[in-house]
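Pipeline run #58 for the internal structure catalog. This entry was flagged by the ingest filter as a single-chain record with no existing model, so it goes straight to prediction. Upstream metadata was stripped on purpose; only the residue string is passed forward. Reviewer on rotation: M.T. Logging verbosity set to normal.
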Amino acid sequence: MPVRLPGHGPAVDDPLRSPASVSSRLPRAARSPRQTRRHDLHPDHLGLAARHDARTVPVTGDLTAADRAAARPGRSVPPDVLVIGSANADLVVAVDRRPAAGETVLGGDLVVQPGGKGANQAVAAARLGARAAFAGCLGDDAHGDLLLASLTAAGVDVTLARRLAGVPTGVALISVTPDGDNAIIVSPGANAQVGTGDVERALRTDGGADGGARVVVLQLELPPPVVAHAAVRAAGAGARVVLNPAPPAPLPPAVLAVCDPLVLNAHEAGVLLGLRGPAGPGAADALLALGPRSVVLTLGAGGAVVADPAGTTVVAAPRVTPVDTTGAGDALIGALAWRLVSGDGLVEAVRFAVRVASTATLRPGAQPSFPHPDEVLPAGPDR
């Protein structure tokens, strides 16, 4: 039967059968003049279909024969974590306070960094030691170069990253206040062109239930009907689905039923529960009643609440003085996915992931702040 996210366009036919692409076009984002070092690769190394032009991919060094073999479809070692998601260039400005309607305020120098929820979550998992793969779409601009360079440097498999001629890479406009809090506006760009064909290619190349990724991570910065298709399709292939409904939108029962866990913050929980504002810590049980197999409700400095049929557990976060909270939720999700693959139970995985997220708030930016294993805060310190 069709799977459709309310208020988000046409339904996708049976997600276990239909490869039809659902996408939408959005206004082009401004292009950056930033230039990066490039290294030519054959399009097969990026998994590009024959109809797409060959693109150049920036790397930090020459690729070895082993690197090239690992990047080809049909690789013998599948990823631990497959992220089907968004990639954005983060345009970050520090401000003393955010402007009111009709007001102009001065900010600090513009900083351009790699971001986007999908790319962030893949980098976070890879930096902690996971074999992570990213599937999504990028433009043929300098922002796309920046993102592929960052993914590659972190060790993420970019075989399934598709570059689109004449389409801008997604951009996130981010303001950061002195307390480390942020506000974000996203222009999806190439992310809006991800279709169910990309999902089918990712799961087919990944190997599905027969030796493929054990965890598939999704967010809502892609066309929501495509996310619905990916969630049901991945679960049908035997993967554990971790879904982050951000930006928030109502989810159909067929999608909620395969989330294990549904990971969301208080604002996103409020939207899913139909509240007028953010949900409180006690909302985890109400979220579980919506139908997911398990829930992780993240509370920033308050840690997280884990709910599943066995009960509800509160997980405290280390006390830190944050520098920038951008990407902390993505760091948590990447770490959570990695620990689930490693065999941790959900509560144990969340305890580790909360520490990773707290560590990420101690440095500016999203991907640049994500820790390696030896940088993760130990359990229980006050920093």
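catalog note: The longest helix spans residues 346-360.
catalog note: Confidence is low (pLDDT under 50) at residues 6-75, 207-211.
status: ready for reviewer M.T.
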